[in-house]
Design a protein that fits this description.
The structure holds 2 protein chains of 2 kinds. By secondary structure, chain A is an all-alpha fold. Chain A has 24 helices and no strands. By secondary structure, chain B is an alpha+beta fold. Chain B is built from 2 helices and 8 strands; from the N terminus they run H-E-E-E-H-E-E-E-E-E. The chains are: A mainly alpha, B alpha+beta.
């Protein structure tokens, strides 16, 4: 029996995916608001600041931070403003530089800042502490938000406040906050769900059931798949609670309402089948198990369902169906074990962690640190690592490794370019005006004179033509005028140049220093990668071990069942033979 | 009836028995998995500060390298940067851009959805950096995309300008005409 509380906590932790997304959306909305004036570009500073936003909005945090530092170095007032620093803090947070971002938020709060910036900084600090599991600090930070909160931040603030209150067991505050949220709000269902988990943990089971029921009923008027899945989770949680209370019928009713195709359907279908068995309604369990039987063998629920289905057929008195189910299950488990073997072989290859992480962007939504965790697309992911991907340790390691690979690529690219930089400087030192080049400039001047004369002749000739033909030629003359003006401008500029441009000598030293830094940082990056790659491999292999042990166990179960069914059949045949012999003997004796 | 009950009881016993054996194995697996997770988090905790420091250094180094490269390739007297921006609104789905400087095609770009979104939210794309000498020049920008009702649009505009002896900027912007929300290209020399 799965502990309803731990189960719901698991649900809750998986929920944090959405929670993080919401936090991130908040940040984007806020920044959009802060930079509303960016829509109307008034100065070159606006243009340069816009390039930071361009990368930021695409979630290219490394590029955005580089761009930020670049424009900041150019004394861009927007970058140095309070809202600019707030944006930098947020980007650092998203790029996994929590310590630096914390320092920025704190320095903003130390100064004399606008109420909206102050409240935003407290909000992000609270968010940061919450995700670092520093609940007391998070609670204190959220309490500091005072005065008017910007409309964009209002709902999100309430959402974070409820999460923090739930963590700190401030359930009364959460309930109070909940009343200020509209039931039509996107966050309402999540706040309610998190509240129910808090109530469950606090032992307030009755209230938790009421809250979960509300979550389940919210989906009825919704077409949003996210809310429908949330409602399924709530129903499953309700079923587990009622099962623990011994109320199998109520659990059965909750389970009947869960969709059979959603993300949560596997666990629900299996629980449904077990509950049916407990209610001795064996025929009801079979369709649920049959649905699971069609799904991927990598899912633990499917593995259990295969064995359970064969058992049910056997107990139903259908040995042929049972035998067939067992034989199919044996094949499926064997195939699953083969797949596992292949997965192990692949993960042991040299560049696999890098490829896995590189392709992770396709598998999941773009990931970042505290602001948003990966939004897993389960359809694209190998089922063997579904649970692993939802785990905290794997996510954190993968995020760091992904960032390190990006840095590795970035520095390798600079390393390649460093050779070009040296070449540019070397060539620049050799540059000088040759006689040929001077001759070309002189020739250009002569050519220009010739063209001017030809143009004058053309204009004179045009005057002799009728009006229609003159109009036709006017466009040509106009474009020739433009070309001549451009040529004239170039020639006069070239004449003014005494010698070719040569870079200052100090550049050579700066280049050498920067290139040394590239090599040093690349070495450090490679060392960190070498430390984290084995961690990822170990996590995946441990997960695969878990799958293998489970499948081997179920395979053995199916083989035992198969042997038992064969034995029973042979015994029946033997018995039938003996009975037949006895009958024959009796018949012969009767004839005698 | 009794037979059915006995079968059910036996079955439940058998399943519960096997489930309990499996539960022991599953617990062992789960604890191994949790241990691996804890080890991963411990490793991360150990190196977290180092990685954060590395990231900080890399951002700073990239900024320095970029400044250095620009200084090398584009001296401030001849530097000429071209930016792309868009006014907010869903009236034009930008697909591609072409830029001609003095009649030569110098830059093209095809936009992804993420880039389009970033532009319409106020981001500015640095499309092209080059060296231009002092004097008269011409820039022409061609935009393609979809207007309202999915109508294909090709927009273009040209600007003549005189480059001075300092770095300059050109802004290529998509704007919308008042009430009709018709997209047009606006070029501004900064």
């Amino acid at each position: 029996m799965i502990n309803p509380i731990s189960n719901c906590v698991t649900i809750y932790s998986k929920f944090s995916l959405t929670k993080f997304v919401i936090s991130f959306i908040t940040f984007c909305i806020l920044v959009t608001n802060v930079n509303a004036k960016q829509q109307d570009i008034q100065t070159t500073e606006d243009l340069e600041w816009g390039t930071v936003l361009f990368d930021f909005y695409q979630k290219n945090y490394l590029s955005a931070l580089i761009e930020y530092d670049y424009v900041h170095d150019k004394d861009n007032s927007l970058a140095k403003s309070q809202s600019g620093r707030l944006l930098k803090g947020g980007m650092l947070l998203s790029y996994g530089m929590a310590d630096r971002s914390e320092a920025i938020f704190e320095s903003l709060l130390d100064g004399n800042v606008d109420t909206s910036v102050r409240n935003s900084a407290w909000y992000y600090l609270a968010n940061l502490y919450y995700h670092k599991a520093e609940n007391e600090k998070a609670f204190n930070a959220i309490q500091k938000i005072q005065g008017e909160i910007s409309p964009q931040l209002h709902t999100e603030y309430h959402y974070l406040a409820t999460l923090i209150n739930s963590q700190g067991k401030h359930l009364a505050s959460t309930e109070k906050l909940l009343t200020s949220l509209s039931p039509t709000s996107y966050y309402y269902a999540y706040v309610l769900f998190n509240l129910s988990i808090g109530q469950l943990e606090a032992g307030e089971t009755k209230d938790a059931i009421a809250s979960l029921n509300k979550v389940a009923s919210l989906s009825l008027s919704q077409t949003n798949p996210e809310l429908i899945t949330l409602a399924d989770r709530a129903r499953h949680g309700l079923a587990q609670i009622t099962l623990k209370q011994g109320n199998v019928v109520a659990a059965w009713n909750y389970l009947k309402s869960i969709t059979t195709t959603g993300l949560y359907s596997n666990r629900a279908l299996l629980t449904y089948a077990w509950t049916a068995i407990k209610l001795k309604q064996f025929q009801q369990a079979i369709p649920a198990l049959a649905i699971l039987d069609e799904r991927s063998i990598a899912l633990p629920e499917v593995q259990e369902a295969k064995v359970l289905l064969a058992h049910l057929y056997e107990q139903e008195g259908s040995p042929r169906k049972a035998l067939k189910s067992n034989l199919l299950a044996i094949d499926a488990f064997a195939k699953g074990l083969e797949d596992l073997k292949e997965a192990r072989r692949i993960i042991s290859l040299q560049d696999v962690p890098k490829e896995f992480v590189s392709n992770f962007g396709v598998i999941i939504g773009k990931s970042d640190w505290y602001a948003m965790e990966p939004t897993v697309d389960y359809l694209k992911l190998t089922p063997f690592v579904i649970d692993l991907v939802a785990s905290h340790g794997f996510n954190e390691t993968l995020t760091e490794l992904s960032d390190l690979y990006t840095i590795q690529n970035n520095l390798s690219e600079w390393s390649r370019q460093s050779k070009e930089h040296v070449l540019i400087l070397q060539n620049a030192e050799k540059k000088s005006f040759s006689k040929d080049q001077k001759l070309i400039i002189e020739k250009s001047a002569t050519l220009k004179k010739k063209l001017v004369n030809q143009k004058a002749e053309l204009e004179l000739y045009a005057l002799t033509l009728n009006e229609v033909d003159q109009k036709r030629l006017s466009a040509l003359i106009e474009s020739t005028n433009k070309e001549l003006a451009l040529l004239d401008s170039r020639i006069s500029q070239l004449k003014q140049v005494k010698k070719p441009y040569q870079q200052p000598k100090k550049y050579k030293k700066i280049l050498a220093e920067n290139h040394k830094k590239i090599t040093k940082k690349l070495k450090a990056t490679n060392q960190y990668i070498a430390m984290l790659e084995p961690v990822i491999r170990k996590l995946i292999n441990t997960e695969l071990d878990k799958h293998e042990n489970r499948m081997r166990y179920y395979l053995a179960q199916s083989k035992l069942a198969k042997a038992r069914l064969y034995d029973t059949t042979l015994m029946l045949l033997d018995k039938a033979k003996k009975d037949s012999r006895k009958d024959k003997t009796k018949n012969k004796e009767g004839e005698k | 009836m009794l037979k059915n009950y006995l079968i059910a009881s036996f079955f439940l016993f058998a399943m519960n028995f096997s489930s309990s054996i499996f539960a022991a194995n599953a617990d062992e697996d789960t604890s191994q998995s949790e241990q691996a997770q804890q080890e991963a988090l411990a490793t991360l905790k150990t190196i977290s500060k180092g990685i954060q420091g590395l990231k900080d250094d890399v951002v700073s180094l990239n900024k320095d390298l970029r400044s250095m490269e620009e200084t090398l390739l584009f001296p401030s007297s001849t530097k000429y940067s071209v930016f792309v921006s868009m006014s907010p609104g869903d009236y034009f789905t930008l697909e591609s851009i072409k830029l001609k400087l003095d009649g030569k095609l110098v830059a093209t770009h095809i936009y992804s959805e993420a880039q389009r979104q970033a532009l319409s939210r106020g981001g500015v794309q640095k499309l092209y950096i080059t060296n231009l000498n002092e004097g008269k020049h011409t820039a022409t920008a061609f935009f393609t995309g979809l207007g309202p009702n999915g109508r294909a649009y090709k927009l273009a505009n040209t600007v003549d300008f005189e480059k001075g002896n300092a770095g300059e900027f050109l802004q290529l912007a998509i704007r919308y005409k008042g009430d009709v929300q018709e997209p047009y290209v606006y070029l501004k020399q900064w």
